[in-house]
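Tutorial handout. Part one gives the primary structure; part two gives the three-dimensional structure as tokens.
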Amino acid sequence: MLLPRKNTGSLIIDLVAAAAIFLFVTGAFYAACASKDRALEEMENLTHASNAAHAKIEALRALPHGELMKSNGAVFSVPELGSAGNKAGNITAKETGPSMAEVTVTIAWKNRGGADDKIEYSTITRDNGGGEEWK
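Part two.
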């Protein structure tokens, strides 16, 4: 006569294995979401910095020659960068020839990991002859 076998401990092993698999899948999902969030924040900061630099370049192009050259070394804030630390813009204007100037706008910030990021926009403008507006 055969006696029924006892399955002692197999239920606990099954539960531990299922919990381990669940924790592994949950951890992988969390890592993927955190990576996506970090990449999204970096792209948003880059977009805001790019838009701010472009707007500043266009505003500088509308200035008369004297005012444009006075803006060399000016610093401005970029509030659109939000949570990015140490966000600041810098303007460099230098004459490159008669009635011409190179204008560079640099925006720098620290990303979530603490590394420095920056974007630079440059343009060469020329005086339209009347000294009123640059093109």
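Part three, for discussion. The chain has two helices and four strands. Confidence is low (pLDDT under 50) at residues 130-135.
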